[in-house]
Automatic annotation (TrEMBL):
CDD domains: NucS-like (cd22341). Residues 8-85 form the DUF7669 domain. This is Endonuclease NucS. Residues 122-219 form the Endonuclease NucS C-terminal domain. It comes from Candidatus Venteria ishoeyi. Keywords: DNA-binding. Transmembrane segments: none annotated. The keyword DNA-binding applies.
Length: 245
């Protein structure tokens, strides 16, 4: 639901008009954030950043934010913080999400790199947990604002795996590791927690973190000892097969 009379998507187009942007003109993420802070201060910085990505025709991450063809084809992303207007005549066709069904399963396991496999597993885990957050904690739900969800939520040029809200409406930052969870992930998590606390949370709204890994290392457990705003979880996978009669 939009915070103001217009949605952030429509306000982005108002911003373009306000800056009198024309073909070739550029705008930075900081300029966009400053414009919104001045005119629509209730809109969160993360929501603004997510809409810039959502409305950039060449940004692969736009798929996380349910980008709509034509309606969301406003910008072309030059780098991580700079955008220009999308040029229909000269720019590549906007990226669209395509479901691909492979009919060739002839590749050997050795042909698939381990890091690519782990990336795929992590995305599967992310997708499953985002739909079943109550398995982690009763009352936990996925953050959502104006069509922007907590999956791959943008924070200062990086992305949170899952951003959620608990039953008390406090933020929960969830980081996933399909292999072992090493101690270095705690720095990443605490950085995200601090960003949400500074740029997203309202006064009195708490922010905490959760790390979920197949195996929590002793170093990570030790690093988190004494941190009352971080919890550690290990997951196990199970498969049930039902014969089709």
């Amino acid at each position: 639901m939009a915070i103001y009379e217009k949605s952030t998507r429509l306000l982005m187009k108002d911003m373009v008009d306000d800056f009198a942007m024309k073909k070739g003109d550029r705008i930075t993420k900081n300029q966009a954030i400053a414009w919104f802070n001045d005119k629509y201060p209730k809109i969160k910085q993360g929501t603004i950043t997510a809409h810039l990505v959502r409305m950039s025709t060449n940004a692969k991450s736009r798929f996380h934010y349910s980008a709509k063809p034509i309606e969301d084809d406003l910008f072309y992303q030059i780098d991580g913080s700079t955008y220009r207007l999308y040029d229909v005549q000269n720019d590549p066709y906007p990226l669209v999400k395509v479901e691909v069904i492979s009919e060739d399963n002839s590749k050997n396991e050795s042909d698939v790199k381990e890091d690519n496999a782990e990336f795929a597993y992590e995305k599967d885990l992310q997708n499953f947990l985002s739909k079943n957050l109550t398995l982690i904690e009763p009352g936990l739900r996925l953050f959502e604002e104006e069509g922007i969800t907590g999956i791959e939520y943008p924070v200062g040029g990086r992305y949170i795996d899952i951003l959620a809200l608990d039953k008390n409406n406090n933020y929960v930052v969830i980081e996933l590791k399909v292999s072992r969870g090493y101690d270095r992930v705690i720095g990443q998590l605490l950085r995200y927690v601090s960003w949400i606390k500074k740029h997203q949370a309202e006064e009195g709204q708490d922010v905490r973190g959760i790390i979920i890994a197949r195996e929590i290392s002793e170093d990570l457990s030790l690093a988190c000892d004494g941190l009352n705003n971080v919890e550690l979880f290990e997951y196990q996978l199970s498969i049930t097969l039902n014969k089709v009669e």
